[in-house]
Design brief:
single chain, 21 helices, about 0% strand, globular
Length: about 375
């Protein structure tokens, strides 16, 4: 009993708060269905790493010596040393994506770039608020609503705020159905949201689908070499899907591989959720800045669509531009739902899917561009 009491007394108020935060993440995963494969392991991991003298962290124990904790080992091996987990996850993501709708409607590529505006706006804002350039760049990437890219950029940039950045990125991914409608309605009228778009897909040959991931990898690698790991593994996964001779491997990449890596990534990133590093005013500020980045990414895509409409004969529903973020396919579903709310006969899903797929490419390229620019500025 004395041992139990001493253990309870060893828990600081910051660690108790982290237990509550971990419990909140688990609640959101189970009760609300918000990104359960990520928020649940992150929440449980946050509890594990904040238990005093936790066996999941490296430590020196009197009479025993140095011990190696599994979560710290996973972090140092698969994220800190190699960025392996977030990069490998992109194989599974690539295998899930059908680029056919995008290839049949190429102008949607533009939204994959336009909807990254919030990233660069927030980097400038974070720098003005006093964050160093490495941290500011990492915070800005939250706007892509792409957890693996956020983790990778923050690791390469050696940001001290990887934990809050990861929590913010995955939280806002889960909150797409709440945040995006609010942001879209800020900058659109009902008339604009009712614009109809006909869907007349052009046929896309198998050869085109095979060449596309190879060409994208080469072009992205030349434009932003630091993005080639992310883009390359994303496109490799897609090539597995489209080649037609690796059906079982494609299925494995989409399910078993993606699910396993997602679980490991969630509990591993919890290493950066230790109370001493996580509980501070900057964490709250990062959450706010992440929301700003996400909202302005959405607004950037919408405003770009409105600018395009000044020159197009067949108008684009501005809401489709908002789907240019990386939260696939959640953002596209939100746009479809909003379109039906305004006009029950207006189906925008395939257009939104095209923009959403472009956003997958745009977010990882944006991450590489940010890494390149910041690296050059710090030389």
């Amino acid at each position: 009993m004395d041992f139990l009491l001493s253990g309870l007394l060893a828990v600081t108020w910051q660690q108790w708060l982290m237990f509550l935060i971990g419990g909140l993440l688990i609640y959101l995963a189970i009760a609300k269905g918000f990104e359960p494969s990520l928020l649940l392991p992150m929440g449980f991991g946050a509890i594990l790493v904040n238990i005093p003298l936790s066996g999941v962290l490296n430590q020196t124990i009197e009479g025993v010596g140095n011990t190696q904790g599994i979560i710290q080992w996973l972090f140092e091996t698969t994220i800190s040393a190699s960025e392996a987990l977030p990069i490998l996850l992109f194989i599974g993501i690539g295998a899930m994506i059908d680029f056919g709708p995008l290839l049949s409607n190429p102008k949607m590529f533009l939204f994959g770039g336009a909807a990254q505006f919030g990233i660069f706006f927030t980097i400038l804002l974070a720098a003005l608020l006093g964050f160093n350039l490495n941290d500011a760049a990492s915070i800005g990437i939250i706007g892509a609503a792409d957890g693996p890219t956020s983790i990778l950029v923050s690791q390469i940039m050696n940001s001290q705020y990887m934990g809050p950045i990861a929590v913010a990125a995955y939280s806002y991914m889960a909150l797409v159905p709440i945040v995006q409608p609010f942001a879209i309605k800020l900058v659109t009228t009902k008339k604009e949201r009712m614009i109809r778009m006909e869907y007349n897909p052009k046929s896309v040959t198998k050869l085109t689908k095979l060449i596309f991931p190879i060409v994208v990898t080469i072009i992205a690698g030349l434009i932003a070499p630091q993005s080639v790991a992310l883009v390359g593994f994303l496109m490799f996964g897609n090539l597995i899907r489209e080649c037609g001779v690796l059906g079982s491997l494609s299925e494995t990449a989409q399910t078993s591989l993606a699910n396993l890596i997602t679980l490991l990534l969630g509990i591993t990133i919890a290493f950066k959720m230790q109370a001493g590093d996580f509980i501070n005013t900057n964490t709250l500020l990062i959450m706010v800045l992440g929301l700003v980045a996400f909202v302005f990414d959405t607004i950037g895509g919408v405003l770009f669509a409105k600018i395009m409409n000044l020159f197009l004969k067949s108008k684009v529903n501005p809401m489709v531009g908002a789907a240019g973020i990386s939260a696939f396919p959640m953002s596209a579903r939100v746009i479809q739902k909003m379109g039906l709310e305004e006009d029950p006969t207006n189906h925008l899903l395939m257009h939104a899917i095209s923009a959403n797929v472009a956003g997958q490419i745009g977010s990882v390229v944006a991450g590489g561009v940010v890494i390149n620019i910041v690296s050059q500025m710090l030389k």
